[in-house]
Amino acid sequence: MTGRVPGLDQLDAAGRVVLVRADLNVPLAGDPPEITDELRIVASLPTVQRLREVGARVVLMSHLGRPKGPDDDALRLGPVAARLSTLLETDVRYARDIVGEEARATVADLADGDVALLENLRFDPGETANDPDFADALAGLGEMYVNDAFGAAHRAHASVVGIPERLDQHVAGHLLTSELDALSRLLDAPESPFVAILGGAKVSDKIAVIESLLPRVDHLVIGGAMCFTFLKAMGADVGASRVEEDHLSTAEDLVRKAEAADVRLHLPVDVVAADGFAEDADHEVVGAQVVPDGRMGLDIGPETTAAYADVVAGAKMVLWNGPMGVFEWDAFAAGTRGVARALADLALADADAFTVIGGGDSAAAVRQMGLSDRMSHVSTGGGASLEFLEGKDLPGVAALRA
User: Fold this and answer.
1) Does the pLDDT at position 126 exceed 80?
2) Catalytic residue among 55, 100, 314, 383
3) What is the pLDDT of residues 170-196, one digit of tens each?
4) CATH ID of 190-389, from 3.40.50.1260, 3.10.180.10, 3.30.365.10, 3.60.40.10
5) Check: CATH 3.40.50.1260 for 2-177?
6) Is 104 annotated as catalytic?
7) Could you give the CA distance from residue 257 to residue 240 in angstroms, rounded to a whole number?
8) Of residues 358, 360, 381, 382, which has the active-site annotation?
9) Has 40 been annotated as catalytic?
10) Which of 14, 70, 178, 367 could form a cystine bridge with 123, CB 3.0-4.6 A?
11) Following DSSP, what letter does each residue of 156-199 receive, concatenated?
12) For residue 294, is pLDDT > 90?
């Protein structure tokens, strides 16, 4: 799939205005807002630096959060422009509009190697609607287009699909290319033993991914709240744990499909059960088959964590998407930490092992633990990586092939 997507090496960008759709959707906190995790900004730098080196005039575009309107000051991209200026060691021009007078003047004033950043794309409803007039205006700011926003590649928005329809020269940036290469390897060249670890809240969010992976994996490891739908479907008493009642039959069907595909399905044997969904809730380790009435499982237990680590230890390829519990709360983070350490230990034991963190909370967990550099690939896109692993052709990727 990635072989048909053109890359930066196919772009003669010297002296040209290049529109770069980046994913600078970073978390902000405080007043004034400050960036609390700059992973996506740092991940965008190789493409920007490469374009600057060849003398392009770089115009960055990104969304940030879900603005309530065009005057949502808490979601302006000013802090991102400031951080980019520091990291790139150059003045990143910040336009406080998207396609208006200030944006046009900012772009017109760029010299070779300069960088500008437009205001939050979602301040204009034309972005998410892929409005033709808005796409025309965006495309009119530049001469070439680079998509480096894997985290938005599953969205058919104006900056993702509208611009490449209007500019003949459109390619993938370094980040998007690396994401496609890593995730394609899981689907197109699986290595045995291949372990898929899936967590998170809902089975319904992972059905298509599981069905896509079953013909490829040797082990399917389940954690997070979604495990209780599987456990209940198989006859366990899960107490007050979260269960998708309307997906019990789906869970049963997936168990049968795993057996038919000769995939070893791993479910928790013990869990950390609490008397409420709260950080300071009273909790205890109980058997996964007999969670007491009124208690809910909020993490996998120590026996399960050790068993899952053993499965990982023998792997040649691992995909992890979704935490094992409510890892934001220390009392329910041990399972997620244990899995993260197991993947990090695998990298030390086998330099050829291929480990992929599928974005979202799993990526946040390995970053919090300082283990990102021990993983083969940490995706910047949670939803996009899931849709790709489901076998879908992402709109932003398909647009680059046109």
Assistant:
1) yes
2) 383
3) 999 999 999 999 999 999 999 999 999
4) 3.40.50.1260
5) yes
6) no
7) 27
8) 360
9) yes
10) 70
11) --IIIIIHHHH-S-EEE-HHHHHHHHHHHHHHHS--SSEEEEE-
12) yes
